[in-house]
Amino acid sequence: MSAVDLAEISVRELNQRLHDLAPGANETEWTISNPRGRHAIAVGLDAPANLHIDGHVGYYCGGMNKQASIQIDGNAGQGLAENIMSGTVHCTGNASQSAGASGHGGLVVVEGDASSRCGISMKGVDIVVGGSIGHFSAFMAQAGHLVVCGDAGDGLGDSIYEAFIYVGGNVGSLGADCIEKEMTDAHRQTLAELLAKAGIEDDITRFRRFGSARELYNFNIDNAGNY
Amino acid sequence: MCGIVGLFLKNPDYQADLGRYITSMLGEMSERGPDSSGIALYRQPSPEGYIKITLQTADPAFDWQTLSAEIATAMGDVLEPRQVSSHCVIAVAAKPGDIRTWLSENYPDIRIVSFGLAIEIFKDVGLPDDVTARFGIAALEGTHALGHTRMATESAVTTEHSHPFSTGEDLCLVHNGSLSNHNQLRRWLRHRGMEFQTDNDTEVAANYLAHRLGTGASLREALEASLVDLDGFFTFAIGTRDGFAVVRDAISCKPAVMAETDDWVAMASEYRSIAQLPGAKTATIWEPQPEVIYTWGSA
After folding, report:
1. Distance in angstroms (rounded) separating the CA atoms of residues A67 and A50
2. Other C-beta atoms lying within 10 Å of the C-beta of residue B109
3. B196 in contact with chain A, both atoms CB, cutoff 8 A
4. How near does any CA of chain B get to the CA of A134, in Å?
5. Interchain contact B271–A (C-beta under 8 A)
6. What is the CATH number of the domain that holds A81?
7. Phi, psi angle pair for B166, to nearest 5°
8. pLDDT at residue A220 tops 80
9. CB A159 within 8 A of CB A138
């Protein structure tokens, strides 16, 4: 077990130690104390380490993560797990805007609320939010799944490509070219698996599914107002 | 960028440390704005019949004692002036409008930075830690305070372009963001008699609020109107005599986080400022919603 106190060493020093983890290294269990809202904690990992961060983190925590499993006991600032490639970033509190933005893979879990632009431009990541999300979420989402147990704000899934959105609560409004779609048994199974992976219990029968109407894929003069 | 901090003390036991807390909160926001910094503190209300005014001059040799004596002769009793660096806080037994007129006629280079019963504003070019040290903010007590550190995008870096901006008696505004329609609004406000010291966008927002409040709107009504009339990005914090208010534009790309315990309410651009406060780790923390007006005290 490696215990790092951010009152003692800098974020840069911590991140360097995490980047230096060699393949097969035994140093896989890390606890990080006193984050105090600092930015860029545990960014750019590429090792199968388990990190436990005790407290609130600032911007971009877990950004570009590969392989690692990062648990934050607290809230997260902007850009949580931005551009995540694989592994897991799990936040027990709330996350600010752009959580999971442009993520290619892996799993992002926010037990509380996420803010605006959650999953913006997501490219394959799975995002599960226990609470609600803000406006412009899943804007231009290309692939992956966004599960929201609470409500979604205005403009959900604007200009969405092929990502799947599941919402348990209310949707403020749908963005351009985002429509409600049929919930089949296969979708319900996917949703149940995502919730189970995230460790969040919910009644899957109340969820609705949203996705692309595919009307904006090719230029159509009748859609000029939507571009 | 720009960084904003605000602290309202619910527990009077913390009031002695207000200056220390706001200094530490603002220092944490240095990277968000290295150009200039400012603090508004609400403390030591002036006696009945007196108005407290913070004045500022670019002249380091300016004789504040002579000015005080002249004001006393021309308008009314002046309590012991307190000079702090380039600023001077005085309490005058006169109306703010009369003092403003007299100063513009007799001392056009002296600026009124704030006026009211309790407000004092100190602002200057420089990093937060340097500016707060220059004005000895950490030693000051009080009930609540706002702070701002600026990264200029719209206009020049000078003391008078710095925040907070006075918006009326015991009112001030700090802003993170930029306004797109400030030239048009400035013309509109000039037609309605508002005067401007700079070409700064936030001064337009401050005068917009002052104009709305001066024509009968409540603070809440003025802020609701600002959501319609101001075009651009903003997270605003507005200091009032016994509290403060926070509002963000519809897009809300400029950050804000709020926190509350039994002892205090705080807002900041980022949580790391709030982390400076006792009990922050267990505070209730949330992000203010777009176009929702949050108020404390009787703001």
Report:
1. 9
2. 10
3. no
4. 9
5. yes
6. 2.160.20.60
7. -70, 135
8. no
9. no
The answer to whether A76 touches A57, Cβ cutoff 8 Å, is yes
Q: Which domain holds residue A152?
A: 2-226
* Number of other CB atoms surrounding residue A8 within 10 Å: 11
Tokens linked to B19: 């200056």
What separation, in Å, do the N-terminal and C-terminal C-alpha atoms of chain B show?
26
The helix (run of H) or strand (run of E) holding residue B81 is: strand B78-84
DSSP state of A114: B
Number of other CB atoms surrounding residue A200 within 10 Å: 16
| A58 CB within 8 Å of a chain B CB | yes
Regarding beta strands A69-73 and A88-91, do their DSSP bridges make them parallel or antiparallel, or are they unpaired? parallel
Residues in chain B: 299
The Cα B46–Cα B28 span in angstroms is 31
Q: Write down the pLDDT at residue A226.
A: 64
Q: What span, in angstroms and rounded, lies between the C-alpha atoms of A196 and A125? A: 16
Alpha carbons A209 and A163: distance in angstroms, whole number: 11
pLDDT at position B252: 94
Selecting from B252, B253, B285 the residue whose C-beta is nearest the C-beta of A75 gives B285
E strand or H helix at B184, and its extent?
Answer: helix B182-191
Partner-chain residue, chosen from B272, B281, B290, that has the shortest CB–CB distance to A135: B290
A154 in the Ramachandran plot: left (φ > 0), alpha (ψ -120 to 50) or beta?
Answer: beta
pLDDT digits (tens, 9 = 90+) for B15-43: 999 999 999 999 999 999 999 999 999 99
Domains and CATH numbers, chain B: 3-44+128-295 (3.60.20.10), 45-117 (3.30.70)
Mean pLDDT of chain B: 95
d(CA A87, CA A48): 8
Number of folded domains that form chain A = 1
Contact between B272 and A94 using a beta-carbon 8 Å cutoff: no
Strands A143-148 and A164-167: parallel
Q: Is B198 helix (H, G, I), strand (E, B) or coil?
A: coil
Tell me how far apart the alpha carbons of residues B37 and B126 are, in angstroms, rounded to a whole number. Answer: 6
Enter the tokens of residue A24: 């097969």
Is any Cβ of chain A less than 8 angstroms from the Cβ of B30? no
Contact between residue A210 and residue A180 where contact means Cβ atoms under 8 Å apart: yes
Residue A190, CB-side half-sphere exposure with 13 Å CA sphere: 18
CA of B116: how far to CAs of A116, B171, B275, in Å? 38, 8, 31
A165: nearest Cα among A153, A181, A177: A181
Calpha distance B267→B260 (Å, rounded): 9
Between CA A71 and CA B186 the distance in angstroms is: 49
Dump strand ranges (E) for chain A: 2-5, 29-33, 50-54, 69-73, 88-91, 107-110, 123-129, 143-148, 164-167, 178-181, 208-212
pLDDT in tens, A127-170: 999 999 999 999 999 999 999 999 999 999 999 999 999 999 99
- Return the amino acid letter for B89: V
ipTM field: 0.89
